[in-house]
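Hi team,

As requested, here is the filled-out complex form for the guanosine-5'-diphosphate run. I kept the field names the same as last time so the parser does not choke. Let me know if anything looks off before we queue the next batch.

— J.
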Amino acid sequence: MGKTVDELQSEVDKRRTFAIISHPDAGKTTLTEKLLLFGGAIRLAGSVKARKASKHATSDWMEIEKQRGISVTSSVMQFDYKGHRINILDTPGHQDFSEDTYRTLTAADSAVMLIDVAKGVEAQTIKLFQVCAKRGIPIFTFINKLDREGRSPFDLMEEIEQVLGIRSVPMNWPIGSGRELSGVYDRMKNQVELFQGDDHSSIKVQKVEDYNDPVIREMAGEFLHDQLCQDLELLDVAGDPFDFEKVLKGELTPVFFGSAVNNFGVQTFLENFLQLAPKPEPRRSTAGLVQPTDEKFSGYVFKIQANMNPAHRDRIAFLRIVSGKFERGMSVKHIRIGKDIKLSQPQQFLAQDRDIVQEAYPGDIIGLFDPGIFRIGDSLSQSGDIQFDEMPTFSPELFAKVTVKNALKHKQFQKGIDQLTEEGTIQVFRTVSFDEMILGVVGQLQFEVFQYRMKAEYGVDVLLQRMPYQFARWLVDEKVDPSKFRINSTLVKDKKDNYVVLFENEYAMRTAVDKNPTAKFLETAP
Ligand code: GDP
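And here is what came back:
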């Protein structure tokens, strides 16, 4: 027994599972590739490049992916680096992200926030950040494209605080910027990392006393050194000190500067990150916190991907392992249906070939073959009836009225809607006035996936008609009066018969809130 416990502990200790959050074009694909190269990726779910170069795509499981050249669903990549095993959860950086993107963040123990030095904090970064912040996970910031002209580091720190509400602590600091960039100063290790050669192809690392060290002056020149000293003095006086406890609570984000495409600052970032980022964290359940080192295996499904292989039309349920050791062929209890199931076909994905996993540990993600028995949020466990916390739902922002083209197919239509809502592909509402069906999603892509799957799996053509609503708020009130929600809004019910108000704009929403002081308007279902 002792040996097993030690083994489990050491496997847990070496793992780091994180997601990279950013706005499209900030450099996530580039950064991910560089990280994978350091470790020599051992397992890729799909391919990092797939969504960029569709002609080389290996993850074109769905027609939509082929047409649009993007990865519909988040994938998982695993690699080893200096004794660590690292799982990167890829969240699609495309505008067309979906609730899956958000749910994937529940499987991460920390996040890397990637920011373009010229663009600063952008829309999609804000959304993803907020989901992470709600969970209170540590967030590490990488400010990318330092080789380009960008905004001042102070300016960016200010923006991070103003827009995201998190304080930041620079771990390194640029020496010069844009075309004048000559390197960075590592504040923690007191060393300079300088570009070498005209093409910046190599990097020289030099230990120094502190930032005043004349060695830096010799290396970077008077002008840049003066600037560096000025900046760092200001930071020493006015900046936040590094506080590990605050980092772990998600109250302070360590900031790293670099350039992914030049592979500059990436390795330093990775090494610091591995040291500071949390190992697999416990998860809350009906039986209290489940620790990763609990010997009994457990995990939860955070995502289901349909039709990964059109020839088989099977589905893959992505499971985050919370505790214990996974071994191929093991039996575990599927809590919701109350049955034991055998995990005989767990897979990682190595490009097109499905790579069968023999064993895995807390923090790892495994794909389970799903003949239709899994739902998002399902818990699997070897130790009795524990159910992990329910998967959060997210407030939809795009809405469309849905109807069936051929009325004779109504039964299939209903079945498809029921199953796809159950699976978490879309949210469905019914208007109180005319009993019309309205779909709600967080990204346009979800509509397309819905339409595609209704046709492919249920043989039903659906018509989607976009509606002008932008916000959904769950209404909690003693007495609900539908007549109150007619101007730039409409009253609907969700599938559990909760009242929800859809608003066309913020003004309409604010007016409703003001006029109904006794009512509560919640972002998600109560
Ligand atoms: P993603 O959409 O976030 O995955 O972004 P990509 O990794 O595809 O990068 C978007 C563009 O920015 C590509 O043209 C990259 O070559 C470029 N890029 C990425 N990192 C850097 C960088 O450090 N400096 C510069 N100048 N360009 C970069």
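Two things worth flagging: Residues 344 and 465 are 43 Å apart (CA to CA). Residues 22, 24-30, 93, 144-145, 147-148, 259-262 surround guanosine-5'-diphosphate (CB under 6 Å).

Thanks,
J.
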